[in-house]
């Protein structure tokens, strides 16, 4: 969502929520969504990145993330949904399976933008948070291995969809490119990524990450950040 806001040059204020309590806050704001991001626009809280981008397109249509051509629009929305559903949850599971044993790597991802007291509380509560994340996101060995296979399949799909223009749909950057590149950021580790990331992932994950980063799809992700972030 932040990328869409920045792409459209929309002034905004980002508020970081602590993991765990964020579920309660998101549900309280939206009434039906328990995940972030949540955008408050004209007094209305909008959850789910697809809904958020649709609202941004309605209020700030330029620069557009939706193609004008109806066929291209449907293709872009279909790719957005594919990467949201078939990449996002699986990449998160695969990544956190590797990171959760290492608080020193995981905590900076959660504490960015938090005041000192919140950072201290999160550090104290991390063992409980780790158990909760494993249960709620099914972060165990066999599901994580299956999710790795899903990530590879999503990379295959990405590479198959890149057009002669270098974009997924038509000749310009769309919601499809934004979604795929944003979700694949842990693979490419682009310097333009605006939040803390794990510069040196655990050794157990490096072969997998490097194998994807060196593929044409991994290079494409880095290029999308260079061009548009």
How far the N terminus sits from the C terminus, by CA atoms, comes to 12 Å
Helix content: 55-70%
Total number of β-strand segments?
A: 2
Query: Which strands sit side by side, in order, in the main sheet?
Result: 1-2
Q: DSSP strand (E) fraction? A: under 5%
Taken from the alpha-carbon principal axes, the silhouette is: globular
Q: Note the run of SSEs as H and E.
A: HHEEHHHHHHHHHH
Helix/strand/pairing category: mainly alpha
Give a short account of the largest sheet: 2 strands, antiparallel
Q: How many distinct helices?
A: 12
Q: What does the radius of gyration come to?
A: 18 Å
Low-confidence stretches: none
Global mean pLDDT: 89
Q: What report would you give on this structure?
A:
The protein is mainly alpha-helical. The protein has twelve helices and two strands, in the order H-H-E-E-H-H-H-H-H-H-H-H-H-H. Strands 1-2 form a two-stranded antiparallel ribbon.
Please describe the structure with a list of short key phrases separated by commas or semicolons:
mainly alpha
Write the layout of secondary structure elements.
Elements: H1 2-7, H2 21-30, E1 38-41, E2 44-47, H3 49-59, H4 70-86, H5 88-99, H6 103-111, H7 116-137, H8 141-161, H9 175-183, H10 185-188, H11 203-213, H12 216-228
In short:
The chain has twelve helices and two strands, in the order ααββαααααααααα. The chain has helices at residues 2-7, 21-30, 49-59, 70-86, 88-99, 103-111, 116-137, 141-161, 175-183, 185-188, 203-213, 216-228; strands spanning 38-41, 44-47.
């Amino acid at each position: 969502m932040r990328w869409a806001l920045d792409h459209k040059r929309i002034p905004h204020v980002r508020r970081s929520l602590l993991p765990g309590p964020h579920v309660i806050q998101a549900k309280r704001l939206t009434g039906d969504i328990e995940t972030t991001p949540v955008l408050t626009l004209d007094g209305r809280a909008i959850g789910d990145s697809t809904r958020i981008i649709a609202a941004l397109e309605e209020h700030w249509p330029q620069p557009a993330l939706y193609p004008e051509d109806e066929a291209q629009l449907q293709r872009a929305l279909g790719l957005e949904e594919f990467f949201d559903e078939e990449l996002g949850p699986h990449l998160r599971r695969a990544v956190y399976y590797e990171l959760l044993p290492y608080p020193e790597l995981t905590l900076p991802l959660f504490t960015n933008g938090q005041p000192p007291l919140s950072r201290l509380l999160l550090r104290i509560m991390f063992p409980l948070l780790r158990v909760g994340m494993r249960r709620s996101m099914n972060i165990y060995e066999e599901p994580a291995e299956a999710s790795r296979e899903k990530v590879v399949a999503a990379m295959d799909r990405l590479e198959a969809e890149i057009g002669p223009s270098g974009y997924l749909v038509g000749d310009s950057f769309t919601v499809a490119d934004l979604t795929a590149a944003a979700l694949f950021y842990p693979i490419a580790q682009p310097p333009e990524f605006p939040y803390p990331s794990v510069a040196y992932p655990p050794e157990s994950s490096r072969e997998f990450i490097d194998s994807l980063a060196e593929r044409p799809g991994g290079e494409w992700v880095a290029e999308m950040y260079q061009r548009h972030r």
